[in-house]
What does this fold into?
Amino acid sequence: MTVTEDYIDASGGDWDDVIEKAQATSAERLVVNMGPQHPSTHGVLRLILTLDGETCTEARVGIGYLHTGIEKNLEYRTWTQGTTFVTRMDYLTPLFNETAYCLAVEKLLGITDRVPERASVIRVMMMELNRMASHFVAMATFGMELGATTVMTNGFREREMILDIFELVTGLRMNHAYIRPGGVSQDLPPGTVGKIRELLKEMPKRIRVMRKLLDENPVYLARTRDVAHLGLPGCMALGITGPLLRASGLSWDLRKAKPYCGYEDYEFDVPVSDGGDVYARYRVRMAEMEESLKIVEQCLDKLRPGPVMIKDAKIGWPAKLALGPDGLGNSPDHIAHIMSGSMEALIHHFKLVTEGFRVPAGQAYAAVESAKGELGCYAVSDGGTRPHRVHFRDPSFTHLQAVAAMCEGGTVADVIAAVASIDPVMGGVDR
Amino acid sequence: MSTDNERERDEEAANLPEKQGRERLNAPVRRTGMFGATTTGDTSGYGGLRVRGSAPARSRRPFTDPDDPRTADFDRVADALEAALGEGEEGSAPKASVERVEVALGELTFHVRREALLEVARVLRDDPSLRYELCTGVAGVHFPDDTGRELHAVYHFRSLTHNSEIRVATTCPDADPHVPSIVSVYPTNDWHEREAWDFFGIVFDGHPALTRIQMPDDWHGHPQRKDYPLGGIPVEYRGATVPPPDERRSYK
It folds into this structure.
């Protein structure tokens, strides 16, 4: 702890010492480190706040505490193995990460149009379910940070219903590596459609409960109305997309503007609000969940039997998976075929799985509208079986730059609301 | 006459290996053969393409391919940029900003001289026929074999007005890794440029505070460069040195 003439740095040490020094001087400014280990900073976000009493006069953001070098690691793995890495970036939107990555790889391979229809429908369905799961966590953690634990328990309870479907389909609650270049890793297991129909019946009620709890709650309104305002010019300058941009009045959604995975065939609205504050962001997210339900319903109607992986045997993963007593693995039929039926099939399986496929040299950028905004994947290939470079433009990373614009001049309590309304996930920010 | 032709053909056939060898040596792309991979551990045996000198891909007009709807507005964008910059993009003028234009995979790439990057960015944002309001950041890419242009800085721009997307790429040599910062035009690039500096060592001149963003402030080296190893870096923590995982214990 150091005391200078005009401010007190409370970046560490004994709090009693800080208070003692603060009382000894006339200084009013206090520089506080909020995080990286703080329950309301969404993981390991570090906020450096300069306080004048209760007012936050300067807010700076420190990141990098969750940097795991995923982009570097990708360069040492095959293109298919890449999905296993990218799914861990923004761990609340794993299916968006996988889709953005696979769309970029498919563009490089020139097979965008050859991805089977059923695979695209499954991708859209999984992404929309994921959008809801992500928004539920956004609401839940937001409630918790404002002290409303019921919102937290409710939000996580509803999300669990979606995660159950993910577990049924992909085998995992998160980090799925389900979407692969050329399609998806396996078809929907029996019973999935029924389970999703159940969800579609139950979920509107759950969303209504949450709306009842929050929409006109005076405490909630007092904490969110006109808090952390960011207008449209600010959003554009800071590169803000997704629900934050739509809450500032611009109806911009990549699903409508640059449709991918067949989004042009679905009917849905893009919720917009012109409030530009935390409450508007909440309303936009709520409305988006209702739209996602509509899309999921249309997906179920669009599901036709067919392959879920590209026909091209040089690219399509030999994805004949089955659930055995020891978990998910290659199906017994496939093992019998490669081990005792066809030597060529064994060689093919071995080469494709260990070496992967080659991707023509070039560069491609693919963007999807993730739950948080524009999630872009820029992939560069040198013609080999591994990426030369993969860069992710994560929306949370870009959005955190807006913290200063949103928080300065407000109170400390509003900093919490502002950061929560950005909904950053440090796994995606730091990669 | 016919015998002459035959003789010529015979001579050509006799010299075919030599001719092929000459072509191979002069080709801009050097192939290292089936088993050229010695360092990466790539079991496919693919040695990678080694580019000799510069073999820049350059597209000729028209950029719009009537059969590819993704390229529909490429000619319009190229014309607008050309008009806004007040020069031809073919490099006829010595100070041409745009070195070359590349159309591939339904994407439009402008390769811009680094001196002109800021000007191009400003035009892209402000010109009414371009209006690329959104920059989705910069990605560094390291090509150690691209002599004199080892470091690439790649920007993606998005126009919400015209619903259009372009890529702008600029390069700088390892020996002089300087690229102008476009934070003054696109404030969103603040962190993106810090990231490219952190991971590739590209110095963005004019950036308000070019510091590391992901790696610790006192880190040495730029980890996403190709000459930087994956793992194997000892880490200093509170005075003690933590060896890399593969050296912590001998598994004998």
Notes: Chain A touches chain B through 52 residues (CB under 8 Å).
